[in-house]
Amino acid sequence: MKYPVFTLIGLLLVLGCQSKNSRDFEIAVSFSDTTSTEALDGRLLLMLSTNDAKEPRFQINAGKDPQLIFGMDVTGMQPGEKITFDTSVFGFPYKSLEDIPPGEYQVQALLHVYETFNLSTGHTVQLPMDNGEGQQWNRSPGNVYSTPFKMTIDKNGIQNTNIVMDKVIPPLPEPEDTEWIKHIKIRSEKLSEFWGRDMYLGAHVLLPKGFEEHPEANYPLMIFHGHFPDDFGGFRTSPPDPNLEPDYSARFDVKGYNIIQQQEAYDFYTRWNDPDFPRFLIIEIQHPTPYYDDSYAVNSASQGPYGDAITYELIPYIEKEFRGIGEGWSRFLYGGSTGGWEALAVQVKYPQEYNGCFAACPDPIDFRAYCLTNIYEDENAYFYPSEHKQLEVPAHRDYLGHIQTTVREYNHLELVLGTKSRSGQQWDIWEATYSPQAEDGYPQRLWDKMTGTINPEVAEYWKENYDLRHILERDWAKLGASLRGKIHIYCGDMDNYYLNNAVYLMEDFLESTTDPYYDGEVDYGDRAEHCWNGDQENPNHISRLRYNSMYVPKIMKRIAESAPKDADLTSWRYQ
């Protein structure tokens, strides 16, 4: 019997679709009672990798070479209970297990454990408590996971596969005090009240030379904002290890970068002890939250009063403990990226409590340039408006403009890692910080995580509370006098995350102010990537290691120009 050609083609297409749809995936995951005898809540993650170099949990990213991950929320998961991953579970970069190409994969499962918080707002939420690692789901102590094993996926998929999570990530040791570096941890009354449980703030404190020998001295304070530091970084009392095997930094295309880092840390120690170097206290703050590795150092609806807790609890405690001067004119803020936003935001939110900020490559400081999205005018964050084509909005580039990933891809990976802004990643922490609290106690979405459709009401809330350029423009009549001479911003004009766009908009406003003129500084690095910090002489891989000393001359100039007449300008200037 003969059939028309188009009928045969149609039949083949149907059979092909049936073949794909007939691929069956059922992977059961459980945890053993040796890891926990109690029921657990959290985000259950299934990972597959074609790279054997390391465990799958350390290979998940949104870049050009991502490995595979799928996730689901679990509540009251019992020891030995099997939870099944099937084709309905959302994943990245493949949305479904049925989309995975046939081949051999290394497979692993992990449960990111959640705890229950009874907030002072009346809400009950489940979130991952930081356990000393800085909110890293793949390294967080207490999380349970499985040993990776090889699995073959063929044209039919895979069936009856069982994964048992029988390992627990162990606790991390606390950093030890040294002659130069001290570690503190305090219970915050403000945060404990908000979260309904004991919550703590910490800091690593670098002492000045002669601290013990000069009990009469009281010191200015430099506050280095940034991501979670496990100890004070960039300070080393001995030359580089002569036996250190040189490594390679792909980010900077530099050989032996580990040796360079050790040398720069030792050079800073040498400068710190120079007779002409001013004597300061420097601190790096530990303020992880159940949403991220740090709080963004401001008060927020879903994370609580971290801004007040740091400024009015932690900073005064440190100054009392280590003889800080303890007055606004003697405190200075600096940092890059997240730390750059924090330095500027804290200066704006607490203008009298600090005497200058040095904000390098700050996270978006004008939400008309929320990276490449104008949250007030754009309707969608993932796609440019077009009638006949779908063009995705980029999220990361190199200094030549080559694109590595998109906003949609970043956000879909976050959605796999955690719902309700619980991924512990960048876009979610911006929501956890800037958004109003939803009825369920979690942050309201700025945009639909699947589609990218922007919620204009949430955007308006962001504008009035956290758009730093808008706040400055709106309130300059009352803020300008307190901020004059205090704002310094630096950014590469090829920032990987397009953060320079918001800096341009901020500069436009600052340079237009005349009553009073802001009298600060905005500077750009030519073809410089993230995180350029104002050094026009050295490459980024060097200047990023010099945060703790590069702004000191500008800080000293600021002190000379602005300190009160009765200020202590001498006790800390010993040699």
Description:
With 575 residues, this protein is an alpha+beta fold. The protein has 3 domains: 23-168, Immunoglobulin-like (Sandwich); 181-364 and 468-478 and 549-562, Rossmann fold (3-Layer(aba) Sandwich), CATH 3.40.50; 369-464, no CATH class. Helix content is 26%, strand content 23%. The protein has 13 helices and 25 strands. It has helices at residues 5-21, 189-195, 257-272, 306-321, 338-349, 407-417, 426-434, 456-466, 468-483, 500-512, 540-543, 547-550, 552-562, and strands at residues 24-31, 40-49, 68-77, 83-85, 91-92, 103-118, 124-127, 144-145, 149-153, 157-165, 167-168, 181-187, 200-206, 221-225, 248-249, 254-255, 281-286, 299-300, 304-305, 331-336, 357-360, 394-397, 403-406, 487-492, 521-525. The strands form 6 sheets. Strands 2, 3, 5, 6, 7, 8, 9 and 11 form an 8-stranded antiparallel beta sheet that branches. An 8-stranded mixed beta sheet has the order 12-13-17-14-20-21-24-25. A 3-stranded mixed beta sheet has the order 4-1-10, with no helix packed on it. Helix 5 crosses helix 9 (468-483). The protein is globular and about 80 Å long. The termini are far apart.
